[in-house]
Design a protein that fits this description.
219 residues; mainly alpha; 3 domains; 7 helices; 61% helix; 0% strand; membrane; EamA domain-containing protein
Amino acid sequence: MFSLCSCIIFLFIKSEVQNSSPSSESTPLLREQSINSSEYRVENRSDVSWVDNLSPLGKRMVGCFLAMIAGIFYGSSFVPVFYIKDHGRRNGTIYTGASQFDLDYVFAHFSGIFLTSTVYFLLYCAAMKNNPKIYPAAIIPGFISGILWAIANCCWFIANHYLSAVVSFPIITAGPGFIAAVWGVLVFKEIKGLKNYLLLLVAFCIILAGSLSTAFSKV
């Protein structure tokens, strides 16, 4: 209930993304010239996406829908681990005697993510006719981000083991959302205005209340 209320409040928070023109004082993080091209010059390439042709309301609806899909996949990523652990405590199943320590499933979990990402990238290369858009400046930061994510995910496995998923999931999912929102307010200036600030504060208070209620319900 708390999650549903906070989700509805987030829909009313308006973000402002400004397209600033390049100047001598600012240098873009990813230059257009850094995109590799083997068939034609970068200047003649069109980077207009189908999203750019949507209305503001259409972009908002598509963004909310894709966020819900991503949340469903994100929330179900641990389901195989929980399924194996649950059936490992039962007799007469193929998982009888399976390990109850969550870190034992990290390698299989990460391997599945790596293989799936590889398949997605190959499909993307095929769709782009072997001419994908690759940003060299983002490769090293991407690897560093992946390492940090892997460390955090291992900690999440440990939290699931000692606190149970019912407690760890609300707390862990609320934390990154709060940090991302603060980052958007202070760094990217995407959220402005007293009304948006108040809505954001109310939404996070509701999320915090829901997380604490879930945590204390297991005590």
